[in-house]
Specification:
The structure holds two protein chains of two kinds.
Chain A: H1 3-7, E1 10-11, H2 16-21, E2 26-27, E3 31-36, H3 42-55, E4 59-64, H4 69-77, H5 83-88, E5 92-96, E6 104-107, H6 114-127, E7 129-135, H7 138-143, H8 147-164, E8 167-173, E9 193-202, E10 205-215, E11 224-230, E12 233-236, E13 252-253, H9 258-263, E14 268-269, E15 273-278, H10 284-297, E16 302-306, H11 311-320, H12 325-330, E17 334-338, H13 346-360, E18 364-368, H14 370-374, H15 379-395, E19 399-405, H16 415-420, E20 426-435, E21 438-448, E22 458-463, E23 466-472, E24 476-477, E25 485-486, H17 491-500
Parallel strand pairs in A: 3-8, 3-9, 4-5, 4-7, 7-8, 15-19, 15-20, 16-17, 16-18, 18-19
Antiparallel strand pairs in A: 1-2, 9-10, 10-11, 11-12, 13-14, 20-21, 21-22, 22-23, 24-25
Helix pairs in contact in A: 6-8, 13-15
Chain B: E1 5-11, H1 16-33, E2 37-43, H2 48-53, E3 61-66, E4 71-74, H3 80-87
Parallel strand pairs in B: 1-2
Antiparallel strand pairs in B: 1-3, 3-4
Classes of the chains: A alpha/beta, B alpha+beta.
């Protein structure tokens, strides 16, 4: 990478995710074409650019060709942006170039946009603006007859913006998410920098992405990045910025079960992600409950996201095992968030979970279960979600316990595990074992990164006091394959065989 | 005689287009509305607020303030027929018509 290219001046948009993807923001003092289909959040993105600019001490001018300023003020209020107040403070100003339907307009000879340019210039000078938005220039083609004349006049605006030394976003409508950049050949208008917003339908799910197609003379991340429109506006999720970091501590934390701690070589590591996989009813939620209770007992703060049970169910189960989670939550030591996965897209769940984690600052976080969230997403978004979330959790120096439900009662893995198993540090398997006409539970620590661990498949019991890890299954084989077989060999013989190959 | 037609012509600076528009407008008004019209010329460079209030994007732009409804004619006003219709003078346009069409 050439250093000069990367150090070329960028303007922070104030939108954290976008600045990461753009290696610092938008090229400063230039215009960027922001193209997208109808409903791809162009206007919200553009307005956010100005509102965030005000927060950074840079005033902005919004030139609107489509919606009236009154409509924009009203629409933006729902995102918490009070345009009218910013206008009073002379930090934001509108240049209204929207059509007035009550006025009849006739063309009678050649014209130019010198008046519009003069208005923009006057407005920029009046409030000393550093940022300008033109939204959306495609509307000018509907207002005037001759597209060639409009295009020529848009060049005039482009040149004027350059001379004003402002950083501008020019929005333009596209007819399809994958095709010509813009409807009226507008890429030539501001060819320097092009950003695309997409809103595609994938496996019946809406997926919004942003792509920086080009920044002339300076670098940026390539490819599409998911984003959401939340109650705070556009939030870009910059996946590839996530760096693979090794667990930085050897600090152990209690899992909530002394027996399991012993199996793990003294407990889980603090900055680690533990995946607990098992069929329905094998005790995953109990693992979560014990994990939370174990943390609270050591004075840690715990946050649980439950997507399979209601709060009442979760609290009732915990009470059944002797934990008063309701009281702990009142004491502020625990926070339990329950939701249906279907209430919002996965990307929004991610943003919300990050926000909750940042606000509550827990030492431990649990998700029960990842598979429930997977129901509500495409394979690709789910993979991005898992990578982004695990990186975030590790970054915060927290321990995370995620559960995953296997689709079959015996043995089995789920797609969830295929995505996460290489990312997480420890894997605990909970399995059913059929022994002489009886269903019993088995537990094994499959993986424990950076530590020796017990490799036996042990019996796992749940009773009124919680979970208990017992002895290893000595005379059953094929548990993990989902095909348990009783061995004819006498248990004593097996014990002897076992002693011939001692554990490391 | 009372002023029936209140017209405002928005221009930017003293460009050829601006002068041509003013010339075309005055010629038509003298021919058709002698004594019944008032023309105000507004230079956007000197009065951006007025352009802002009238939502002027393209210039030259002729705004017919009276009679109502407000009408806007954009361009250098060289297309005479369009200007006549824009001002709403087509009803007494008996002689000129197509002869001066371009």
């Amino acid at each position: 990478m050439n250093d000069a290219r990367r150090t070329m001046e960028k303007l922070s948009t104030g939108m954290a995710g976008f600045d990461t993807v753009g290696f610092g923001g938008l090229p400063k003092g230039r215009s960027t074409l922001l193209a997208g289909t109808a409903g791809s959040a162009k206007t919200v993105f553009a307005m956010q650019f100005l509102v965030k600019g005000v927060e950074l001490g840079e005033n902005g001018v919004f030139v609107t060709f489509e919606e009236t300023p009154a409509d924009l003020r009203r629409n933006m209020l729902s995102l918490g942006w009070d345009c009218a107040r910013l206008e009073e403070q002379r930090k934001l100003a509108f240049v209204d170039a929207s059509p007035r339907p009550e006025e009849e307009r006739i063309e009678a000879g050649p014209f130019d946009f010198a008046a519009l340019v003069a208005r923009i210039e006057a407005c920029v000078r009046r409030i000393d603006a550093k940022r300008v938005v033109l939204d959306s220039i495609g509307a000018m083609f509907a207002q005037f007859k001759d597209p060639a004349a409009v295009r020529k006049e848009l060049y005039r605006i482009s040149a004027a913006l350059k001379a004003l030394d402002v950083t501008a976003i020019v929005t333009s409508e596209r007819t399809e998410d994958y095709g010509a950049i813009s409807r009226h050949g507008m890429e030539e208008f501001v060819a320097d920098n092009v950003v695309l917003l997409r809103n595609t339908l994938e496996e019946e799910k809406r997926r919004r992405t942003i792509e920086i197609l080009k920044f002339r003379g300076t670098d940026h991340q390539k490819g599409e990045f998911p984003f959401v429109v939340s109650d705070e506006g556009v939030v870009v999720i910059p996946l590839s910025s996530i760096q693979l970091r090794q667990s930085s501590t050897t600090l152990r934390i209690a899992s909530g079960s002394a027996e399991l701690d012993a199996m793990c070589g003294g407990g889980f590591f603090r900055d680690s992600i533990i995946l607990c996989s098992g069929a329905t009813g094998t005790g995953k939620t109990l693992m979560v409950t014990a994990f939370m209770a174990g943390g609270i007992a050591k004075g840690e703060r715990c946050l649980a996201f439950c997507f399979e049970e209601s709060r009442q169910q979760f609290f009732r189960n915990a009470a059944g095992w002797g934990f008063d989670f309701e009281q702990l939550e009142k004491d502020g030591k625990l926070k339990v968030i329950t939701d249906y996965p279907e209430i919002m897209p996965l990307e929004n769940h991610l943003i919300r979970m990050k926000k909750e984690i940042e606000e509550f600052k827990p030492n431990r976080v649990a998700i029960d279960s990842l598979s429930a969230l997977e129901r509500n997403s495409t394979t690709r978004s789910f993979r991005e979600f898992v990578i982004s979330l695990t990186a975030f959790v590790k970054d915060q120096e927290m321990a995370g316990l995620f559960t995953s439900t296997t689709p079959t009662l015996l043995g089995g893995t789920s797609v969830t595990e295929a995505h996460i198993s290489s990312i997480c540090d420890s894997i605990i398997l909970l399995r059913y074992v059929e022994v002489y006409g009886e269903m019993r539970r088995a537990l094994t620590v499959l993986k424990m990164r950076g530590s020796a661990h017990d490799k036996e498949i042990r019996e796992f019991n749940i009773d009124g006091t919680g979970m208990h890890v017992g002895k290893a299954f000595r005379n059953v084989t094929g548990i993990l394959a989902g095909n348990p077989m009783q061995l004819a060999i006498a248990p004593e013989e097996l014990e002897r065989l076992h002693e011939m190959f001692p554990n490391d | 005689m009372t002023i029936e037609y209140r017209l405002e012509l928005f221009v930017v600076g003293h460009s050829a287009k601006a002068r041509l528009a003013e010339h075309n407008l005055r010629r038509l008004c003298e021919a058709r509305l002698a004594g019944r019209y008032d023309i105000q010329i507004t230079d956007v460079l000197e009065n951006a607020e007025a352009a802002e209030a009238a939502n002027i994007v393209a210039t030259p732009a002729l705004v017919r303030r009276a009679p109502l409804p407000v009408r806007v004619v954009v361009g250098d006003l060289s297309e005479r027929i369009a200007l006549v219709f824009g001002l709403g003078l087509e009803s007494d346009d008996d002689l000129e018509g197509n002869a001066t069409d371009e």
